[in-house]
Specification:
CATH topology of the largest domain: Rossmann fold
Shape: elongated
Number of domains: 2
Largest sheet: 10 strands, mixed
CATH architecture of the largest domain: 3-Layer(aba) Sandwich
Structural class: alpha/beta
Order of helices and strands: HEHHEHEHHEEEEEHEEEHHE
Number of strands: 12
Amino acid sequence: MSEPEKPPGPEDAAEPEGQSKPTPAEPKPVAPRTGEPPQTKPIQKPDYVKGTMERRSFLRNIGAAAGILGATSYLALAPKEWPLSLKDSTGLRSKPRFKPVRLNDFRVPKPVTQTADVGIGRGGTPEQMLRKALDAIGGIKHYVKPGDIVLVKPNVAFDRAPALGATSQPALIEALINLLLVDCRAQEVRVADNPIESPADCFMKTGLRKATEKAGGRVYLPDSNAFKLLNTPGATLITEWWFFHRPFTNVDKVIGVAPVKDHNLCYASMGIKNWYGLLGGRRSQFHQDIHEIVSDLSIMIRPTLTILDGTKILMENGPTGGDPSNVVNGDVVMASLDPVAQDAWAFKNLLRRDPNELPEYLHKSEAKGSGRVDYTGRLKVIL
């Protein structure tokens, strides 16, 4: 019995004329087994041609090497006085060098019709006495103009209560800031000092931070980045010395506000001595030549005004005080364009000392052109 015929399918269809049967697809390459390196073509190394060095190039290379060796030997072996020498046996040459800065002269000439250089206000509140003293030398508006940035430098050296008389009185600082911001329309009032004891504690204990902020001023406390090397031409001990400079940035006017008090080294601490608080560094070394350093301070700062706070006077055991029995009520405020004359008058009339025994620093300050000891005919008192 014969098998049935298979029905025709697509594979049995006749090929069109002119077309060949398609070739089977090439098998995909098989990836190499793990661990076998891929098959790559061998690297053909280029042919290197050995060059020859010309005599001129050889000599040039030898000369360059000799120059480098000679320069290195010079830098290492040359005496330290020779240029570019690397010898530094003391280590001083490797210390960083700072460019000194200079302070402006903040003085303002008095009104042409004004004869007094020292104004004295007596009677009333601290604000009333301050106004009287300022009016006696032409009024605060003559010296501070609208838009000015004013720095006020009180004495905040110790963390003492105001009643002990060792620091500036907060009531007077508050009154001064009010005058500057309200009457003069100053742009900003800064209050700064570099106290001997903790700055933050001193400003708090003396009440000066509270008084400053209440009146609208701003307290500047010192830190390690707030000091610059200051150049003071004509100074003996501080021709170049570290100085609390940050609060002086862009300042237009400077006013010192100092208490009147006894001092165990220089006999009296008043207007000129107050600037000592702006020095940085190891300033205690200057105590060995106290009168010279105080006279240097008189030319380090050329202030707009110097105000003496005679509301409480420390008669003995200064400058630190500590015993209320050493303090008397002076009921006087002074404002001056001549700090030498001002201190000389206060030494005699507020500290009640012999004028023939004036502190030596006053005579030295006069010799340096900071003012005159003789105040005859240059005072004006307003009661």
